[in-house]
Task: structure prediction
Amino acid sequence: MIGGILALVFVCVLAVVAVGQRAKEDCDAIFKSQEELDAHIENEHSPPPPPPKLEIPVLGDYTNQGVRHGITGRTMIPQLMSALKQMGVRDYMHNVWKYSHMWDDFKLLAPECQKAGIRLWLYNVPPSEPPAPKPFEQDYIRWAREVALLMVKYPVIQGMLMDDFNGNTSYFTIAKCQQIIDAGRAIAPNFKFIPVAYMGHDSIYRLEPHIQAGVCDALLLVYWWPWKDPLKTDALRPQIEEYRAWIDRHSPNRRVPFLPFIVAWRGGGRKEPTPAYVQKALQICMTAYKDGLIEGMATYVLPKDNPEFIEAMASVYKEI
Result:
């Protein structure tokens, strides 16, 4: 009985040795030297590389309002570029929603922005906002790859923003966001992914796990809730201070850039923003930038065919 047990143990030991030897041979076939193996082990346990640095200040504007052809809906690129230069814009966020040709316009904008030195962002929409953006629809990993491929040729392109992120966190899980980021950075290491959400709305707190996980290269946060009043500026600085502290609490080891998003379009029949409102709100943001609370700002749907809005924006953006 004892002899049988010893024989079984001996067989098991031989099997373990054989498996170990085979594993070593497989490892030797992959790694040419002990140094390569050691380097691989070290890399496997190394923290992920830091995210690409956001160029600041971000002085942004979103979509082609006022410079869109009335019949075809195509972006009138010469008029858009002229307005962006007059306003002192450094970052243009091009929306690819609603019109099927917006991706084509983005590709045409890339060389123009490269010549002008204006950073170009693709502004995408989530599944909650039909119709799905053309041509890649809800294949956001494909969108990231296509943007990154353009970045190789036009380094002025910065990456992709995602609208209404706070309402779509169940779709944009941390794993999904990481796949989007990885797809872009595999081609263009400078690719950045920026969620868009609303200050003052309870759903913004759904972003906390994403901030903690490091899948937000910055946050573009709309100043709008809870008042929905595009003439109210007195709560802007308090919200900036509140959300700067909130972001920092959930990312203690890395500062996540914060960009307020100033509404310059009434939408939904609400009050009409004025040039004076936009100017005042941007002045508050500029002071917050100088105080180190934010990394920049952007305007939402500013009418680029209105000289008064252009002048109001330029009076702030051209301070720097």
Q: What stands out?
A: The first strand starts at residue 58 and ends at 62.
